[in-house]
Amino acid sequence: MKIGVFVCHCGTNIAATVDVEKAAKAALNLAKVKFSTTYKYMCSSPGQALIKDAIKEKGLDRIVVCACSPSLHEKTFRECLKESGINPYLLEIANIREHCSWVHRDRETATRKAIEIMKLAVTKVTHNRPLEKTHMPIEKRVLVIGGGISGIQSAIDISFAKFPVVIVEREASIGGRMARFDKTFPTLDCAACILTPKMVTVAQNKYVTLHTYAEIEEVTGHVGDFKVKIRKKARFVDTSKCTGCGACWNKCPAKVASEFDLGLCKRTAIYTPFPQAVPNIPVIDRENCLYLKSKKCGLCQKVCPFGAINYQMQDEIIEEKFGAIIVATGFTQFDHSVYGEYGYGKYRDVITGLHFERMANSSGPTGGKIIRPSDGKVARDVVFIQCVGSRDEQKGVSYCSRLCCMYTAKHALLLKEHNPDSQAYVFYIDIRAAGKNYEEFVKKVQNEYGAVYLRGRVSRIFEKGGKLIVRGADTLSGAQIEIKADLVVLAVGLIAQNDAAKLAQMLHIPYDQNNLFTEAHPKLAPVETITSGVFLTGACQSPKDIPDTVATASAASVKALGLLVQDQLEKEPLVARVDKNLCSGCQACIKACSFNAIETKEVEDRALKRKRTVAEVIEGVCSGCGNCTAVCRMSAIDLEGFSNRQIMEEIEVL
Amino acid sequence: MTGDRSEWEPKIVGFLCNWCSYAGADLAGQSRLEYPPNVKIIRVPCSGRVNPLFVLKCLSSGVDGVLISGCHTGDCHYSEGNFHARRRFTILRKLFEYLGIDPKRFQMAWVSASEADKWAKLVKGLVEEIRQAGPNKLGHR
Between A626, A652, A654, which is nearest B48 by CB? Predict the structure, then answer.
């Protein structure tokens, strides 16, 4: 055995804190290490060429690369070994950057630790075995969870490549948040004009299946073979018969606050969320339908000319298979009622940006009039408050929601256009207008639309004489400010959906302290997750505006397509294996396995001259977690790449 | 083991699951959070991979403290590996208590891939606790 050790400088990322030459020299003292060297960037092509040449010239047969985390370049170096004719699994990475040079300052300490990390890797590689990747079939279909702009764009992109896509949307219509917007910054395109054609395109696309009013119930399986249970909630309307004529909702006597319009108007119990809904088929809200509650009414059934109403309808659970999953579940709004200074959400004329958006919309609840919800009077003096919930570690979230500066500027502009006599006041902390033509847009709103920007926070809002008195400070002039406002609009931040963590747990993808889904790498793999075959798009990962959302949607689609175009899926061979001679057939491993990847098998015991039951791993199903190994009393089941012997010897050399 | 206590530095082994805690420690690096160098990380696919024998081996080889760190409950990449780990940890710790081994020497933590700060703090605290506990006299080294 001839082990080669390659120590990377990573520019100065490693070399500034770790004495790489000393580390390389120390490697030569380790058993079976025949060669060691350093290089500025081992992952670059000259760096890889260096490894390849050394393998050829020195006859190396196992490689340790001391560099960054294996999550970054383990694949790169495995490929490098493969190209040199060595089995790619005869490699170990010593993580001396993330776990060493970047977390220690003292050179001597860091060098000592780097050498220890290297020692572990050398010990481990000694016991690596040559392995071959296995191959599995791929279910050539994609599941898109969420039917907002993000999910719609993903589905359209995948349909271009002629692969079937299923969109699961929990609301009665696709369209998501964007369907509620009036105009979009900075171009002031009408949101409906750019979204609704896409909604129609996706619905008519023969490769796309829409499951609206449906939710994900369970996800099992793995990349290439996800098995997903989808709950299709009972609509009480037969989608095959309904034409969306509207006879039912015109007659329905039960009126409740419309969720789509944030309570600014009423909807009926049988309803479509908005006029351009896709599919244009209503649902009956079972909480509020008089018939479903108390068997009184039944009017919609009587008036439906197509006999489409069916009060007996039940939720239906369907199971489908997918090769890849795109998560496009979006965001929800921060609840500002935690802020006493803004009135704990009790003033009707203190609204959120989304309320403003609905009012500005000509097909919205006020027919495009920007008014005070309390008395319906036209709003003249309007105060906008930014960073509500965002950048507030005490009561909100620590991050910047990224779009509030822009949508507030847009609202100030729309206000002037709708009510020319009006005046907008914007309280801000910083203006963050980083995007193409964004800064110019904010300047335009200030200079051409006369919005007054005040740098400072609002300390209190209270009602007096039918107006809202807004008290705050202008920190630039040092003046205390009091504005008699008709309307206050809060730029509330974007937060994860309430049930985001539950979905993440179903999909086995990580999420952060704010329940936003975590990408595999913030820079190099922004739409991937560490769970192979699950991709992220849009605001479920972090607040994103429409351009960024659409861009990530297309990116996620490309990643999903990259999987689907393969004939077969390569599977890592780091799976469990049973030594049949040692196995006593106790089946403890079968109980410990969450994946049903272990079966029993009859073998002929030559010594005892009779049949014996032993465990056997189904390689294609084993996910390589190693839980079986820890329960085996005989140490008969072991994990490739993380074997008992490897770990024991790592402990030994420490 | 050197006799001079002033030169003694706690030696700690951390078994980190690949998906949450190892990635959390990676993020600590990416965020340049400084912490003591005493924890030597052994990467395992899942906290449930950690055989109790590994922990015994550590303590019998003179390691002063052992840490198993995995995904938060409910977040396991393999669904329920961390539940197995937790159950095993509880039993093993009871055994250590019975044997008179300071329970501080064997600890378990949940660190997610985004909790870099938690990881750095955990290491700092752990090193301090093991320093208080003193050298592991079970070790043959």
Answer: A626
Q: Which of B49, B57, B121 to mutate to test the interface with A (most CBs of A within 10 A)?
A: B49
Q: What pLDDT is attached to residue B5?
A: 54
Copy the structure tokens of residue B140: 């043959």
**Range of the structural domain that residue B123 is part of:** 10-130
Task: Fold for A572-653, please state it.
Answer: Alpha-Beta Plaits (3.30.70)
Q: Would you tell me how many other CB atoms lie within 10 Å of the CB of residue A52?
A: 17
pLDDT tens, A499-522? 999 999 999 999 999 999 999 888
Tell me if B81 and A531 make a contact (CB, 8 A cut-off).
Answer: no
DSSP sequence for A538-556? GGGTS---HHHHHHHHHHH
Residue A508 is nearest to which of B32, B77, B115, comparing CB atoms? B77
Q: How far is A120 from chain B (nearest CA, A)?
A: 8
Closest CB to A530 among B19, B43, B50? B19
Put simply, whether A518 touches B (Cβ < 8 Å) is yes
Q: Measured between CB atoms, does B4 come within 8 Å of chain A?
A: no
**Residue spans per domain, chain A:** 3-133, 135-233+315-330+503-567, 235-313, 333-495, 572-653
What are the distances in angstroms from CA A284 to CA A17, A140, A198, A233, A256?
65, 34, 26, 10, 12
Q: Is the pLDDT score of B2 beyond 50? A: no
CATH number at A235-313 = 3.30.70
User: What is the CATH code of the structural domain delimited by A3-133?
Assistant: 3.40.50
- Å from A648 to nearest chain B CA? 6
Query: Is B79 within 8 Å of A594 when comparing Cβ atoms?
Result: yes
When pLDDT is cut at 50, 70 and 90, the band that residue B3 belongs to is very low
CATH code at A333-495: 3.50.50.60
CB contact under 8 A, B54 and A647: yes
- Which of A99, A511, A639 is nearest residue B29 as measured by Cβ atoms? A99
ipTM: 0.95
Please say if the pLDDT value at position B98 is more than 80. yes
Q: What is the pLDDT of residue A150?
A: 98
In a domain, B80, yes or no: yes
How many angstroms separate the CA atoms of A415 and B121, rounded? 49
Write the pLDDT tens digit of every residue in A405-459.
999 999 999 999 999 999 999 999 999 999 999 999 999 999 999 999 999 999 9
Q: Let me know if residue B35 belongs to a domain.
A: yes
Which two structure tokens, joined as six digits, stand for A173?
């219509």
- B/e letters for B31-50, b = 16+ CB within 10 Å, e = fewer, are eebebbbbbbbbbbbbbbbb
